[in-house]
Amino acid sequence: IHTHTHTMVQWWNVSGVFAAVRACTTRQRFLKPSLCVQDIRDIPFEELKSEGYNYVVFDKDNCLAKPYVNEPFPPFKNALEQCLSLFGRENVLIVSNSAGSCDDGGMEGAIDVEKSFGISVLRHPQSKKPSDECIRDILTHFNNPPPAQCIVVGDRLLTDVYMGNVMGAYSVHTQPITSEGDSKISAFVRSQELAYLRRKGHGISTS
Known about the structure:
The chain is α/β, with parallel strands linked by helices. The chain has seven helices and six strands, in the order αβαβαβαβαβαβα.
């Protein structure tokens, strides 16, 4: 079992700070998810595949796994396997601001996640979500498909949803798995994001 708790944390995300400033001023439309769900078990993967979506990008921490734990959250394993079966393992990617990022020295976290999940982890040591550079890295990994064929799934508005919408993908917002093990800064920002969703009336939908 590959579990890294508190051994790797997400340091200062400059692109995330700039995204927050833009999102709160001139780009609020990019904070609206295409779909809000409780967790990945509620995502209609078959329907989305039939509509022409061919690529899936997952966040890791608090979306597929507990924060900084490099193995799938057990209740989500069946839904994840369904996604991999439908889209093909080569068309599914984990993009994390911990594993595979500049915070992941030697990319050991990315290697652990790939072994545990059986899914490729994007190496993006020069970029972080939701930067334009990270978007380019994702599309390059998939051999530059039309962004409109991509689905981006995550629990963070200012990274996952914002990035998905900016790139022209279908954005899915999930609720966090747990606050256990999460950093205080991440937990605070997430609480503000969820409050924003409630104010805007973007509630959870499982339809």
